[in-house]
């Protein structure tokens, strides 16, 4: 008999959602996935596309990696292979997303550019699936966690893009490049840490 | 006796290989399902095009436009930014004749600038869009050019600048007529005109005549003298602003002479 944490979530889901979206936000608190965060927040359009792609890849890889870990790796004592297995799954899904975007939205495909293949090495995605295993989440909870992590990534991306667009519109040269990105990131991180830091879950 | 770590080898190979094979199979299926045809002609065409991605053709950029031209959806002359030489090269590449198009360039429908009074001193972000966000515009005329140069920044070809009179000035030799500035202007005081001597009412104000007279030296007051004198009946009044129907206008210049405010110009 293979032992798994079970399918239906036994954990309280609300703290998991709030954790993934705010208190342990992947971008601002855990500092995962910063490459695309700095690179793609110059406009709302591209950050919207990237957020959707990352959320999709996160959720799909959580759906796939959980059974792979508990039914293939753990019974065969192959836990040391988890990183490479997860990367394999994520990379394939990124490739799939790339096909889909190239087919249905060439404009978005061009504006995402190099960052699209980079999702496969985006540590936020790998972080989600590794944390799912580390925290012994049930199948349901792991999917919820991955999806809310994607939402957390999305709202920070969109909010930062809004701030940076404003800075760029103001025409302050010093704030249009990476300095502006770090400035916006600092403000966002202050908000998240100081506001949600007082909430004890 | 095989060491314990060696016993893990077969399942490791099988599991990892299996996952890899399954993922590979899925990608093969997806690659067929979502196949996008690329034509080498598109890349060759893209090399010739201006690459400014101005959007005047109605597509998202030069790359998309090139795809549609090669597919035959649109004629190559949708591109307003290519010059005759480029069109000849494109024609050679595609094996067709491309007739030269009458060039267009933007016209500023405002003579305000320094001639129009300010409502207040504006010291915010130096863009027209930001200036409008603060209590309308800084100019007394709500319709006129603000002169902070959104059009200048939109231009890919360095063909427009803010002149000393506070109004955009078109440098015709650089202008490709792409219309980026027309789309960028939040006040919509720019419009595209054909090259050969069109007549335009260079004012956009729909304000009442008395107010226009008060704030601006050249604004159209909607008196209607041009309308009465036009032999072709090509001028009508739209809320205290004369508008010339470019299709019916014969460019005779009568209205230019009779306008008491010098608000009509033959370009």
Give a verbal description of the structure.
The complex is a heterodimer of chains A (201) and B (267). With 201 residues, chain A is mainly alpha-helical. Chain A has one domain (13-194). Chain A is built from 9 helices and no strands. Chain A has helices at residues 13-23, 34-40, 44-73, 82-104, 106-112, 115-118, 123-134, 139-169, 178-196. In chain A, α1 (13-23) runs parallel beside α8 (139-169) and α4 (82-104) crosses α7 (123-134). The longest helix of chain A has 31 residues, at 139-169. The mean pLDDT of chain A is 84. With 267 residues, chain B is an alpha+beta fold. Chain B has 3 domains: 40-94, 3-methyladenine DNA Glycosylase II, Chain A, domain 3 (Orthogonal Bundle), CATH 1.10.15; 105-189, 2-Layer Sandwich (Alpha-Beta Plaits); 197-267, Alpha-Beta Plaits (2-Layer Sandwich). Chain B is 34% helix and 10% strand. Chain B is built from 11 helices and 8 strands. Chain B has helices at 4-7, 9-33, 40-48, 62-71, 84-94, 128-133, 150-154, 180-184, 209-215, 225-229, 254-258, and strands spanning 104-108, 160-162, 168-170, 190-194, 199-201, 235-237, 242-244, 264-266. In chain B, the strands form 4 sheets. In chain B, strands 1-4 form a two-stranded antiparallel sheet. In chain B, strands 2-3 form a two-stranded antiparallel sheet. In chain B, α3 packs across α4 and α3 packs antiparallel against α5. The longest helix of chain B is centred in the N-terminal third of the chain and has 25 residues, at 9-33. The mean pLDDT of chain B is 83.
Q: In a nutshell, what does this entry contain?
A:
Chain A is mostly helical and 201 residues long. Chain A is 72% helix and 0% strand.
